[in-house]
Specification:
This is Bifunctional inhibitor/plant lipid transfer protein/seed storage helical domain. By secondary structure, this protein is mainly alpha-helical. The protein is built from six helices and two strands. Strand 1 (26-27) and strand 2 form a beta hairpin. The chain is globular, with a radius of gyration of 12 Å.
Length: 100
């Protein structure tokens, strides 16, 4: 995964957690609203079960793209636990999702 794509993911996650934007962002086949919906489920501090909206969003996500961020050092600095993120498809009972 290129550092440019990694930087974009970090920026999106920060913006999603801090500010509601009027610009639509699409990352790895997920909109900003869908990323926001999944954020509580991948939070290091007090993670929640993924919502049905999050699970629905994961059904059309680009897993190759998402898996490219699995080892990003930036995710942890913004409160995202990569292990929790990698486990979302299983938490959502998405049997056909590829493993990272």
């Amino acid at each position: 995964m290129t550092s440019k794509k990694m930087a974009i993911m970090v920026i999106v996650m920060v913006m999603a957690s801090l500010v509601e934007m009027s610009v639509t962002i699409d990352l790895c086949g997920m909109t900003q609203a869908e990323l926001n919906e999944c954020l509580p489920a991948v939070s290091k501090n007090n993670p929640k079960s993924p919502s049905q909206l999050c699970c629905n969003a994961l059904k059309h996500a680009d897993y190759t793209c998402l898996c490219g961020y699995k080892n990003s050092p930036w995710l942890g600095s913004f409160g995202v636990d990569p292990k929790l993120a990698s486990g979302l498809p299983k938490e959502c009972d998405l049997a056909n999702a590829p493993a990272c």
